[in-house]
Each structure stands twice: as C-alpha cells, then as structure tokens.
Known about the structure:
Helix 1 packs antiparallel against helix 2 and helix 2 packs antiparallel against helix 3 (60-87). The model has no long low-confidence stretch (mean pLDDT 91). The protein is mainly α. It has one domain (2-111). The protein contains 4 helices and no strands. Helix content is 81%, strand content 0%.
Amino acid sequence: xxxxxxxxxxxxxxxxxxxxxxxxxxxxxxxxxxxxxxxxxxxxxxxxxxxxxxxxxxxxxxxxxxxxxxxxxxxxxxxxxxxxxxxxxxxxxxxxxxxxxxxxxxxxxxxx
Length: 112
C-alpha cells in the first residue's frame, strides 16, 4: 500500500514538474515564466520527494531537509530573478496592468 501511495505522489509530482516546463514555454514574458516555473516546480519537487520517502522510509529525515531547502530557496531565487529582470528593464507583456515595483520606486522618489 505504501508503494502505491509513493508511486501516486511521484506521478503527481511529475505532472506538476511537466506543467512547470510547459508554463516556461507558454507564458508571454519573463516575469510570468519565472512564476510558472517556480510555483509548479516547488510543489512538483516536494511531491516527488515525499513519494520517494514512501519508497525509502529510512531516507525520510534527509528528504525532509531537502524539501525544506527547496521551500526556502525556490521563492528567494524567483524573487531575485524577478528583481533582476525588472532592474535591466525586461519588457512586460502588454496585458500587464500594474507595475507595483515601479510605482513603489516612484513613490519613494517623490517622498524624498
């Protein structure tokens, strides 16, 4: 039974990882690609690692540490990539309505 649950989780994680790759191909600009890649790959990696933990229960602590590392680093790296893309003025898609970072910078400049 645990092997079946582990297999299901690995398969579900693989589906999320596939959707992350598909999102990287299909999204219109760098910012939405970063989001699609980060969110889906974080969940996909976690599900795969939890599924592997069902196969190898003695690895559970190590896999939990890896999951923690993924949860800590993926959002931070995504944020850094987004800020860097904004700083070098990578264009946003025309459908983007709000540029909150630009608005915050303009507010800071006008306040000082």
